[in-house]
C-alpha cells in the first residue's frame, strides 16, 4: 500500500501523522528549510563551543556538568568527539522489553521533526539518516525502561548507536552515518519516545472515542432508550464543549430512529453519556493541544539561538505539561469506560431490554453473553490500575543536581495500556449491542446508526445459541481498528 509523504518541517507535525509514519509506514520527506536550520545551528554551536563551555559538548553531563572534558591520551579524536562517543555508549543502558517497533519508530519521527525545528545543533546529515531509516521501515534497538520524564536518554542513545553502526537496527539495515560525535548530547536531549508514544495513544483514542459514541447509540437502540436526555435544550443548559459534541453526535445518530421507550428515565449509562463521555473527549482535546506544542517544540538543552548567536542552558526537556495531560486523560477514560461496561450490563438484563437474560437463546439456563460481563470488568480493572496518576511521583538523581521528575514516560506507557483495555471494553459493548438489535428483529432505520450496524453485523456471527465468543471479540476489535471513519465526532 502506498502512502503520501509526511513533510517533516519542524512546525506542523500532528499525532495522526506520527501514527501514519510509525504504524502505517507512510514515508517522510524532510523540508529543505529544516535541513538548513539544522546546518546553521550545527555551525554556530561548533563555533561557540570552541570559545566557551557548552553543556555536554565541552563538559560532562548531569552532576558532571562542571567537569571540563579533555582528549584521551594518545587519541587523534577531539575532546568533544571522544566524550560524545563515551556519552552515547554509557547512556545506552535501557532494560526490560524492547520498545514496541511502532513506538520506537514514533520516537524517530518526533526526534526528526524536533531536529528540523533547529536549536539542537545536530548536523543535517543526522536528519537525512533518520529519514532513510524511517523510509526503510526500521526501528532502533531500544528498551522500555530508562526514562522518568526529563529525557529519553537511554532510548535515544541506543538509536544514535544504531545510526553509527554500533547497534543493529530491527527490520533491516541502513548505512552507518558518521555524524559528529560531539553532537551526542544534542541528539539525546529530548523526550521523543515519550512524546511519540503519547501521540500514538492520542490518535488511537480520538478514533475510539468517536466509535464509542456510535456503539453507545446502538446500545441505546438495543435497550429501547429514552432520547429526551440528549435534547438540544437540555444540553445548551450546560454547554461544556465535549458534552455538546457528544450529545449532538447522538442526536445525529438517532435521528429518524424509533425511540419510544416507556421509561421516564434511563440508567446513567445512557442518560449521562454526554456528560461523562464528553469529559473524556475534552481531556483528549487538551492532550492533543499539548502534543501540538511538544511535537513541534525545540525542547533542547542547551538550545542554540542562531539569530542571536547564543547557546542557552534551560529546562525545556521537563515534561510536566505532558505528564499532567496524560494523567487527566486516563482518569477521564476510566470514567467513560466504566459507563460502557454498565451499558453492557443493562443489555443483559431483561427488565431493561425486554429480551432474554444475557441475550441467550436455546434451552433454559443458556448463558448467552454472560461471560462478556467478566471480560469487560477484567479489562476495566486493568484500566483502573493504569489510570493512577503517574505524576504524583518524583525522584532525585545525579547526586542531587536533578531533583525533580514528572514520570511522564510512565504516564505515556500507562496510557498505551489503557487504550488496549478500552478497545476490549468497547468490543464487548458492540457485540452485545448487535446481538440485542438482532434479537429485537429490527435493524436501525437508514442513517448513520444503520451504517454502523451494517458494518458490525457483516463481521459478527449471527448464531445466538451458546458458543465460543472469542471470534466475536476479535472481529469487533478488528473493526474498531480498521473503521475509525464510523465516528461522527
Q: How many β-strand stretches?
A: 6
Give the helix/strand class: mainly alpha
As a percent range, the share of strand residues is: under 5%
Compute the separation of the termini in Å. Answer: 27 Å
Instruction: List the secondary-structure elements in sequence, H or E.
Output: EHEHHEHHEHHHHHHHEEHHHHHH
The fold-level CATH name of the largest domain is Fumarase C, Chain A, domain 2
Low-confidence stretches: 485-489
Strand arrangement within the widest β-sheet reads 1-2
What is the assigned CATH homologous superfamily of the largest domain? Answer: Fumarase/aspartase (Central domain)
At CATH's second level, what is the architecture of the largest domain? Up-down Bundle
Number of helices: 18
Oligomer: single chain
Shape verdict: elongated
What is the CATH top level name of the largest domain?
A: Mainly Alpha
Number of domains: 2
- The radius of gyration computed from the alpha-carbon positions, rounded to a whole number of angstroms, is 26 Å
What's the overall average pLDDT, rounded? 92
Biggest sheet, in brief? 2 strands, parallel
Helix content: 40-55%
Amino acid at each position: 500500500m502506498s502512502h503520501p509523504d509526511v513533510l517533516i518541517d519542524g512546525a506542523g507535525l500532528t499525532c495522526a501523522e506520527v501514527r501514519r509514519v510509525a504504524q502505517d509506514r507512510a514515508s517522510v520527506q524532510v523540508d529543505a528549510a529544516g535541513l538548513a536550520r539544522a546546518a546553521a545551528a550545527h555551525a554556530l554551536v561548533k563555533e561557540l563551543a570552541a570559545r566557551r563551555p557548552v553543556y555536554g559538548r565541552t563538559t560532562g553531563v548531569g552532576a558532571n556538568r562542571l567537569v571540563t572534558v579533555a582528549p584521551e591520551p594518545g587519541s587523534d579524536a577531539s575532546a568533544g568527539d571522544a566524550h560524545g562517543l563515551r556519552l552515547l555508549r554509557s547512556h545506552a543502558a535501557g532494560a526490560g522489553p524492547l520498545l514496541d517497533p511502532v513506538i520506537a519508530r514514533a520516537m524517530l519521527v518526533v526526534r526528526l521533526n524536533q531536529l528540523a525545528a533547529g536549536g539542537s545543533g545536530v548536523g543535517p546529515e543526522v536528519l537525512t539518516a533518520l529519514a532513510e531509516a524511517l523510509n526503510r521501515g526500521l526501528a532502533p534497538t531500544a528498551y522500555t525502561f530508562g526514562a522518568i520524564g526529563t529525557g529519553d536518554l537511554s532510548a535515544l542513545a541506543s538509536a544514535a548507536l544504531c545510526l553509527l553502526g554500533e547497534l543493529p537496527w530491527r527490520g533491516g539495515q541502513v548505512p552507518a552515518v558518521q555524524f559528529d560525535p560531539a553532537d551526542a548530547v544534542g541528539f539525546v536531549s529530548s523526550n521523543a519516545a515519550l512524546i511519540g508514544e503519547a501521540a500514538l495513544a492520542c490518535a488511537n483514542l480520538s478514533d475510539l472515542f468517536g466509535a464509542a459514541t456510535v456503539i453507545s447509540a446502538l446500545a441505546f437502540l438495543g435497550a429501547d432508550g429514552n432520547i429526551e436526555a440528549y435534547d438540544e435544550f437540555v444540553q445548551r443548559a450546560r454547554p461544556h464543549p465535549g458534552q455538546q459534541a457528544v450529545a449532538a453526535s447522538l442526536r445525529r445518530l438517532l435521528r429518524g430512529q424509533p425511540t419510544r421507550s416507556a421509561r421516564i428515565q434511563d440508567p446513567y449509562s445512557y442518560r449521562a453519556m454526554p456528560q461523562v463521555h464528553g469529559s473524556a473527549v475534552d481531556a483528549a482535546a487538551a492532550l492533543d493541544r499539548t502534543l501540538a506544542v511538544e511535537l513541534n517544540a525545540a525542547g533542547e538543552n542547551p538550545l542554540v539561538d542562531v539569530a542571536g548567536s547564543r547557546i542557552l542552558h534551560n529546562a525545556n526537556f521537563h515534561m510536566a505539561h505532558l505528564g499532567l495531560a496524560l494523567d487527566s486523560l486516563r482518569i477521564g477514560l476510566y470514567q467513560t469506560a466504566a459507563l460502557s461496561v454498565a451499558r453492557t450490563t443493562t443489555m443483559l438484563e431483561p427488565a431493561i431490554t425486554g429480551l432474554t437474560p444475557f441475550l441467550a437463546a436455546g434451552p433454559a439456563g443458556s448463558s448467552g453473553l454472560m461471560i462478556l460481563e467478566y471480560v469487560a470488568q477484567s479489562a476495566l480493572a486493568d484500566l483502573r490500575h493504569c489510570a493512577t496518576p503517574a505524576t504524583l511521583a518524583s525522584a532525585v538523581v545525579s547526586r542531587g543536581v536533578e531533583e525533580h521528575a514528572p514520570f511522564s514516560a510512565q504516564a505515556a506507557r500507562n496510557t498505551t495500556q489503557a487504550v488496549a483495555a478500552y478497545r476490549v471494553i468497547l468490543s464487548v459493548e458492540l457485540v452485545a449491542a448487535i446481538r440485542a438489535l438482532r434479537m429485537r428483529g429490527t435493524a436501525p432505520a437508514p442513517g448513520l446508526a444503520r451504517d454502523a450496524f451494517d458494518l458490525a453485523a457483516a463481521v459478527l456471527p449471527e448464531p445466538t445459541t451458546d458458543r465460543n465468543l472469542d471470534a466475536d471479540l476479535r472481529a469487533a476489535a478488528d473493526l474498531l481498528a480498521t473503521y475509525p471513519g464510523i465516528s461522527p465526532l
